[in-house]
Write a structure and sequence with these properties.
The structure is a homodimer of 190-residue chains.
Chain A (H helix, E strand, L loop, with lengths): L1 H10 L1 E3 L3 E3 L1 H5 L1 E2 L1 H14 L7 E5 L2 H10 L6 E4 L11 E8 L4 E8 L8 E9 L3 H12 L3 E11 L4 H7 L4 E9 L6 E2 L2
Helix pairs in contact in A: 3-4
């Protein structure tokens, strides 16, 4: 998606250690008008695919997922990172390591909101090492639901996540694929 | 908003200790179609008010805020609960006690995304003791921006939050106002 590449080049901030900050339109300030263009693009890419539920993970995935969900007339279910007193015990759970935050989180999804018959599109902001996405796929499959595909905003194609998800037999569509960030310079896969 | 009262009565779960769970359409599964009705209602209520930014707090506020923001043609900025390595040091911050999670969080907002001249509508799911909302108002005011109003989905009017925010001179519009939850029975203010 050319418009996303341009936006990343214009508004993204590259930091040492392979960190790309897109706080200006995704992870802190959300450019809702632009996310509607993202939604249209995912709808174009997954046109004709049966999808009745959008799954994502808190917190950054929620905004994108909600806007995208409008183009699929589907509700969003987001995996939660911590067990709160407000969620029932009847959940699917899986452990996920976070590269960004250097922690391991147990992510959970209530059995009430996902189950056999669900045709799921997973939406997330980043695909890097693939741990979060693998965790979400595991939750959906544990529920007996089907992952119809993954829609990712930014893929760091120089990390191992894409190959990991491909090896699980899941279709991945990433709207911007970063080939390299050497010397803090962004190079995209066209 | 009658449709919201009906939805809370139908899908909400009342638990002991004044806890109302709306995980089925707000806090875990998000009913995106219904949130569009919520967005239209906030637009009706705040019609004619100059608003150029929607502010909320992660995680549950983000989905509502993004859908609502479309009706104001405004971006969303969400306060973050923890300092991550991916956010710069140049932030406004305030401590907020969470009734639900029994913790104190420092919430932060980057100085890049809020400032003088901003006319802010704050959107959140619940108003109970008012701590989160007061924290958000403080962040916005610290930034030199103006709080034009607060749009709340569910107000527990039997708790002190509404009076607290009223005392700050801020307009609050709550789409469902719960008068009491005695014996786990919901009574709304009409």
């Amino acid at each position: 998606m050319k418009a996303l590449q341009d936006k990343i080049l214009k508004e993204g901030i590259v930091k040492d250690g392979g960190v790309l900050k897109v706080d200006g339109f995704v992870n802190h300030r959300i450019d809702v008008a632009f996310m509607n263009e993202v939604g249209k693009e995912f709808k174009r890419l997954f046109d004709g695919v049966e999808i009745n539920k959008i799954v994502t993970i808190e917190a950054s995935g929620i905004g994108i997922a909600c806007i995208v969900a409008q183009y699929f007339n589907a509700p969003v279910v987001f995996a939660k990172k911590n067990k709160s007193i407000n969620i029932s015990g009847d959940v699917y759970s899986v452990d996920v390591a976070s590269f960004t935050h250097k922690t391991v989180n147990t992510i959970i999804m209530s059995k009430e909101y996902i189950g056999p018959g669900d045709k799921v599109l997973i939406i997330d902001d980043f695909l890097a090492k693939g741990n979060a996405l693998k965790g979400l796929i595991t939750l959906v499959r544990d529920a007996g639901a089907e992952v119809m595909g993954c829609g990712i905003l930014v893929e760091k194609s120089f990390q191992e996540g894409r190959a990991l998800i491909d090896s699980m037999g899941i279709r991945v569509e990433s709207l911007a694929r970063i080939k390299s960030m050497d010397n803090n310079e962004l190079v995209f896969i066209d």
